[in-house]
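Batch manifest line 370
LIGAND: uridine-5'-diphosphate
JOB: complex structure
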Amino acid sequence: MHLKKIMFVFGTRPEVIKMAPVVSELKKYSNKIRTIVTVSAQHREMMDQMLEIFDIQADYDLNVMTDNQKLSDVTCDIIKGLDPILGKEKIDFILVQGDTTTAFAASLVGFYHKVKVGHVEAGLRTHDKFYPFPEEMNRTLVTSLSDVHFAPTSLAKDNLLREGVPKQNIIVTGNTVIDALLLTVNKKGFAGYIRQDTHKMILVTTHRRENFGEPLEEICKAILDIVAKHKNVKIVFPVHLNPNVRKIVHKYLSNEKQIELTEPLDYAAFTKYIADSYFILTDSGGIQEEAPSLGKPVLVLRNETERREGVEAGTCLLVGTNRQRIVKEANKLLMDKNAYEKMSQAVNPYGDGKASKRIVKFFLNGLGKD
Ligand code: UD1
Ligand code: UDP
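JOB STATUS: finished
ARTIFACT:
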C-alpha cells in the first residue's frame, strides 16, 4: 500500500489549539498516513507557545510574521513560502482550519497545485462580507477552495448546503476545540489557578480588527467603570501581542489595583482561568465555543457572531462595544443572581470531544485504503 501524505498548514494561536487534537489523532495511524506539519508562523510567539504545550514539531516553518503586518504581506509571504514545498512534496490532502489568512492562503496554494483541501471548522457565517474582517471572506473563500468540509455543527452544515456545497462533501464533526479543551482542562498541575472566595474574577480578551481604536477604548473605559463600582471584582486580562491592542490596553488599564494585565497565557493555564472566572468579556471566537462547556457566561464584545449556537443556548450575549451597554450587562451578572444562573448553565452546542476522531476516520476510510 502506498503511504498517503496529509499536510497540516496553520499559523495562529487558535489554529494550533484546534488542530492539535487532529494532528495527534492522525499520528496514531502513521503506518497508513504520513503526517506533515507546515506552520506559517503568522503568529510567532503565540503559535510557538501553543506548539510547545501540545508538543507539535513543525516539518516546515514559513516564519512569515512581521511587526504590525499587513494582510496582503501575510497572504503573499505564505503563498510564496508554501508553493515550493507543495512543488517538492507529493501531498494527497492539505488540512486547514478556520478563517485566518493562513487558512485562506494555504488553501489557495493547494488549489494551484491541484492538491485536495480539507477545511476544519467549515461553514461559519455572519453573511456580512466585512464582519468579522477579513475572517468572513477568508472562510467563504476557503469553502470555495475546499474539497471536504468538516462542519462543527448542523447550523454550519446548513450554511454550506445553502451555498451549494454538495451534501456528500460535508461531515458534521463537532468542533475540535472541545477535544482540545477536554484534553487540557482535566490535566493537573498547571499554574494559573485563582481562588474565588475573596473576589469575583472577570476574564477579558480582545483582538478583533473591528475593535481597534475607539471601540477598544470604550471597552477599556467600561472595565474601569466595572472595577470602580465593584470592589470585590478582579479583572484578569491576558493581552494579545498585536500592537494595536497593546497600545490602548496598557494606556488605559495598567496601574489599576484590581486589574491584572498578563502576557498571553498558555492553553493549560488559560483554560484554568476560564474555569475559575465568574464570567468572561471577549471578542474571541474560540472562547465563545469553550465557555459554554464550562458553564461560564460570556459577554461578547461584538455586534454579530458566526457562533450563533452559544447565543441561542443563552450562555453568550452579544453586547457590542458600547461602554454603557457593557457596564449594564456586567452589573446585571454581578448583582442579579437569577440572571447569572440563567447564563451559567453548562451547555455544549459545539461537540462531544470526538471531532478529531471523526475527521481522521474520514481519511482512514477515504485515503488510507488503496
Ligand atoms: C489573527 C487572525 C484572526 C484570529 C487571530 C487569533 C487573520 C487576518 N487574523 O489576528 O482571524 O482571530 O489571529 O489571535 O488571519 N503579534 C506578535 N506575536 C504573535 C502574534 C502577533 O507580535 O505571536 C503581533 C505582530 O505585530 C503581528 C500582529 O500582532 O503583525 C498581528 O498579527 P495577525 O496575525 O496579522 O493578526 P491578529 O490580530 O493576531
Ligand atoms: N487562549 C489562550 N491563552 C490566552 C488567550 C486565549 O490559550 O491568553 C486560547 C483560548 O482558550 C481559545 C483561543 O486561544 O482557545 C482563542 O484565540 P484567539 O482569541 O486569539 O482567536 P479567535 O478564537 O478569536 O480566532
